[in-house]
UniProtKB/TrEMBL annotation:
InterPro entries: Bromo_WD_repeat (IPR052060), BRWD/PHIP_N (IPR057452), WD40/YVTN_repeat-like_dom_sf (IPR015943), WD40_PAC1 (IPR020472), WD40_repeat_CS (IPR019775), WD40_repeat_dom_sf (IPR036322), WD40_rpt (IPR001680). One of its GO terms (cellular component) is nucleus. This is BRWD/PHIP N-terminal domain-containing protein. WD repeats lie at residues 239-280, 281-322, 323-361, 395-420, 439-470, 552-594. Residues 492-501 have a biased composition (Pro residues). Residues 367-387, 489-508 are annotated as: Disordered. The keyword Repeat applies.
Amino acid sequence: MALQKYIPLGNTPPANSMKPLSFPGKGYEKAHLPDTVTRCTSEQDVDIDLREVYFLIMHFLSTGPCQRTYGQLWNELLENQLLPRRYHAWYSRSGVHSMKENDDGLSFPLSYGDLAERYKHIEKDHLVNLLKQLLLNTASPTQGLFGENTLNASAVPTLLGTGSFSLMSHERDKGYAQAKCPGHMRWPHMLADQVRGLSLREIGGGFTRHHRAPAIRAASYAIAKPSTMVQKMQNIKRLRGHRNAVYCAIFDRLGRYVITGSDDRLVKIWSMETAFCLASCRGHEGDITDLAVSSNNVLVASSSNDFVIRIWRLPDGLPISILRGHTGAVTAIAFSPRPGSVYQLLSSSDDGTCRIWDSRSSVISPRVYAPRPSDSAAGKNNGPSSSTNPPIHQIFCCSFNASGTVFVTGSSDNFARVWNACKPNTDDSDQPIHEMDVLAGHENDVNYVQFRFSQDNIVTCSRDGSAIIWIPRSRRYHGKAGRWTRAYHLKVPPPPMPPQPARGGPRQRMLPTPRGVNMIVWSLDNRFVLAAIMDCRICVWNASDGSLVHSLTGHTDSTYVLDVHPFNLRIAMSAGYDGRTIVWDIWEGKPIRTYEISHFKLVDGKFSPDGTCIILSDDVGQLYILNTGQGESQKDSKYDQFFLGDYRPLIQDTYGNVVDQVCWYLFISIFKHVAVCDTVTMITWSLVFSCSLQ
């Protein structure tokens, strides 16, 4: 029987020659396992014929996409005679060679075609089925701790597990301590405690024993399989506590409360445990533009286009202070992350200035930051300086770095500026503090800025259809040029072409679409930059070289909500005006799950600090809580949650303090016959009475 060499079809080039295996070419006995495999076997060893293994691999490759590998393997097995042989019957083993090729009197080799004909009962996926049977027969380390149908992250089937997750029994006996997971699969912050373990168990992770290591393993496999993180997020609680759009919705630092700010001028504090509204904070005379929570989780700040910032106590909403000084709408606020300055509050405004306040007091004057005037505005062009006033450019956004020492802003003059947050005022208190660097490179308004999570790299975006990554220079170049330099200019690619009809049919014209960037964020590990584009896409760039990694499509309308998971490196979330929320795997560039939340526009949203919940808000005053579990603790909460005095008129004094008008008149009618009652006492009793009516 002649053995024919495999000839690939078409013009497929042959693969490179492979180094022959150290296996006896014409040996009749069964192959012995290599030393590494022999050491891994148990005391009850089994002798495996490697020729059968080669045949199963060949059988598996025959129907797969790797046809060139299949052909090369055919030639290698033929050359080294590594396929099973056909042995003569014992009564015909004369030792005399027959007329068949390569017959040594005892056996002769079979080709792959002969073997496939001989073993018709072996399916093409026989090798895969054997591996599946191995997985099913190997007990999971968490078997018995969860329900039969409960999928947990630590029990995700894998052939590549180590330690207690290995399919080899001797590795499972060694324990996890001697076989650590690789660095990219470990817990991101190495802070896996019991609370984290319980949170992971709620979303599909968990631990097997009462110590830290299993929680770390569960987190590792949850990161490796991000779908396990969101498949339990299926309970959607819908609430309404505002009349108008809720453009601000954030969590507190611990995830116990949600704070919302609306165009109806109210700030409300909600309990995540019960989904009840705990407090309604009144006093603003304009739309709420931004919210911020102090790093010690004590204060909540709210800004408005009434030029005022109000500070409230968490969680009862008691007013603490009123910060007034801006002459334009306050666009963004942020508390300092510096440990010694937890009450310092940064604000940016349409009046072209930034201020750093002491949020505890309305009396202390803030530090004022203003852009350095240009030469023409400063009167250096031989003309009188009083004839021209420096132009005022709106500041849209602001952001602290991780240490709270500097902050960056974006404004309507196409520039981003970096400021020193620790610099005190000069001797002349009327003079503002100027920027330490100007980042020029955009051709339109800089509408969003963000520092890197752990370093001083900056990313800025604009409606000109681009984003820029800025990196700090070495200290030796600070005097010669700016302290930050442009590293990568991230251009938004054109949208994908629509499907075209067959040749000769009507062609679809490519309509121009806006490619401005609405929002931009860093990934948790700082490897990627994610941006929400005006043409409904989510673009992902590599932060190390500026290359485009993914252009994610799934939304059908503009997207203004973009957030990354607090500890899973692979997960990000986006929501848009199409009422759709998509959880993405940014490593693979695929959607993990899509939620059809609402028919209204989703305008804000965030991940909870523990990653088990998503909060969303829309343009009609509704709040959506997307969390795990069955929602037993929230079942008693009602859809409409308004207080009696939410929209009653207020009376305001010269300092900005407010009191309910109805309560005040009622109080006056009660105490009008009291002769001795000073104004301070009356206001105090009025506030108490107003709070009691709420």
